[in-house]
Write a structure and sequence with these properties.
Helix content: 25-40%
Largest sheet: 5 strands, antiparallel
Number of strands: 5
Number of helices: 5
Number of domains: 1
Shape: globular
Distance between the termini: 49 Å
CATH architecture: 2-Layer Sandwich
């Protein structure tokens, strides 16, 4: 048996920068940078997940830096849910998926990678989109690069 390699060169820049990541909230830095932002208003933002489970994996978050959904004001909670709903519509338009997953991981033990800034994951799913790579090699196979995904979702967002 030979060792196979799956090339994901576009991730090299991130891996090289891990050691020099500045302190603070990574999601707040993403919002400040703006490069992965699909859309934002005065209460919420929708950003492309840098480490997607599937192509089109979005993070919907309040601009208020809160850790728990119960810490959101009523207006921020309403705005967040409206942004989740619009994200679903944009992903349906962009990808024509068979289904979608939506969810939030509250706390590290629940899988939260950024436990200090509440956010909701929204991602398209297709019949048969799972395979052995995740189980055997702990690797995701994505059919498009992140800049392609961002352009596709932004175009669909503008059409919603």
């Amino acid at each position: 048996m030979t060792l196979e390699r799956l090339w994901a060169g576009w991730r090299g820049e991130y891996v090289a920068g891990i050691a020099e990541a500045p302190p603070g909230c990574v999601l707040c830095r993403v919002l400040d940078d703006g490069g992965q932002v699909v859309w934002r208003d005065d209460r919420t933002a929708v950003v492309l997940n840098a480490f997607p489970y599937t192509s089109g994996h979005l993070l919907v978050m309040p601009l208020a830096h809160v850790a728990e959904p119960e810490d959101l004001s009523a207006d921020d909670g309403s705005a967040l849910w409206a942004s989740v709903t619009r994200s679903v519509a944009a992903l349906r338009r962009a990808y024509r998926p068979d289904g979608l997953n939506m969810g939030a991981n509250l706390g590290r033990s629940a899988g939260a990678g950024v436990p200090g800034h509440f956010h909701v994951h929204v991602m398209p799913r297709w019949d048969g989109d799972t395979n052995f790579m995740t189980t055997v090699a702990e690797t995701r196979v994505l059919p498009e690069a992140l800049p392609t995904t961002l352009a596709k979702v932004r175009a669909a967002w503008d059409a919603t």
